[in-house]
Amino acid sequence: MIRLLVVLLLLTGCQAERSGVILGGDLILDRSHGGAGSAWGLAECAGCHPLAVIHEAARGIAPLVRRHGYATCTGCHGDNGSNRPRRCTICHNASDLPRTPLSTGRHAHGFIADTGEPLRDGQCLVCHQAADMDGRFEPEQDLTPLPDATGHATRYRSIADFCLRCHNRNHQQPGFAMDGERFDDPLIAVEDAWRYIDKHGLSSGTGEGTYAGLRAGYRYRSVVECTDCHAMHGTDNGKLIIDSSLKGVTRLDPALRERPYRIDTAHGDYSQLCVMCHAMELLLDAGGEDTGNGLSGVHKRGGDCRPCHTHGEAVQAGL
User: Which residue of 1, 87, 152, 219 is 20 to 30 Å from 120, comparing CA positions?
Assistant: First the structure.
């Protein structure tokens, strides 16, 4: 009788999965899995979920599950109490999902400085502990809840707010401590700059200065996400600066962004990055010269913009 009850509970769980219904957007299995927890702790998914019909209502996921089998389950649903490793890159790779995310390049946010290794499953899970896999990136759904300066996992107001939970001076996350090479090192000082005086954070710039002018999609006094300039998943540029317009500048006119434009910051030349968003209304200095990627509009090309335009610059007219 007990065995029959367990089988019925398992079948009930299977039928709910086949319907394609996801309740609450949380895909991680818990102790209630299978109805009254009858499936919790089981390592073999095949006992209840036939591969031929699993995720049949989820057209974007089903082909990947068919191709790679049950090894894909833990990436979305956790280990089901079985201690099996969670796998993310089994699907999120250059062959299966080449643009979600774009992950080409020698550098990635691997949490270890100066390494050229691609991201591994465990590193993905630091930031994406329980993504809902619905095809839309939503910070509240797809980013790991991390405590703020008060110790509470408050709601993210932006992607940048998520980044600042780690990149700060005095309330970093356990296990990911950063010292910074100097007091104004952006690794630790960016929160100060963002909150008070940074040109791309809560700034006081008006856009009415000498070098005013932005491309379609951007406006002065708006908050720009860290990921508009920094590629978390892969880039050939140092400091995780994007090497392609496809990897950032999210507000840019799609027709411009998706050409795409390359960005090379070798030898400290940041003009190809800045020109993606900045286009001078009144051309001065080198404002009419091609920065090397087909775009013009910044007053200096072939050199380092950072001595004057840095994280935390107190006053920047037109920025």
Answer: 152
DSSP alpha helix (H) spans, the chain: 2-18, 62-68, 73-77, 121-127, 139-142, 159-164, 186-192, 254-257, 271-274
How many CB atoms lie under 10 A from the CB of residue 288?
11
| Contact status, residue 203 vs residue 318, Cβ threshold 8 Å | no
Q: Rounded to the nearest 5 degrees, what angle is found at the Cα of 62, between the Cα atoms of 56 and 65?
A: 130
- CA 265, 243, 173, 86 dihedral sign is negative
Question: What tokens were used for 273?
Answer: 């990055």
Sign of CA pseudo-dihedral 304, 307, 312, 318: negative
> What's the pLDDT band for 245 if we cut at 50, 70, 90?
very high
Question: What is the tens place of the pLDDT at every residue in 148-199?
Answer: 999 999 999 999 999 999 999 999 999 999 988 888 888 999 998 888 767 7
Spatial distance between the Cα atoms of 317 and 278, rounded to a whole number of angstroms: 13
DSSP 78-139: --TTS-PPP-STTTSSTTTSTTTT---SSB---SSTT--PPP-HHHHHHH-TT---SSS--H
Query: In degrees rounded to 5, what are phi and psi of residue 102?
Result: -65, 120
Give residue-wise pLDDT tens across range 199-242. Answer: 788 766 565 666 788 999 998 878 889 999 999 999 999 999 99
Residues 139, 140, 146, 151, Cα dihedral to 10° = 130
What's the pTM?
A: 0.86
Whose structure tokens read 């799609």? 254
- The confidence score (pLDDT) of residue 13 equals 41
Distances from the Cα of 98 to the Cαs of 89, 139, 200, in angstroms? 11, 21, 29
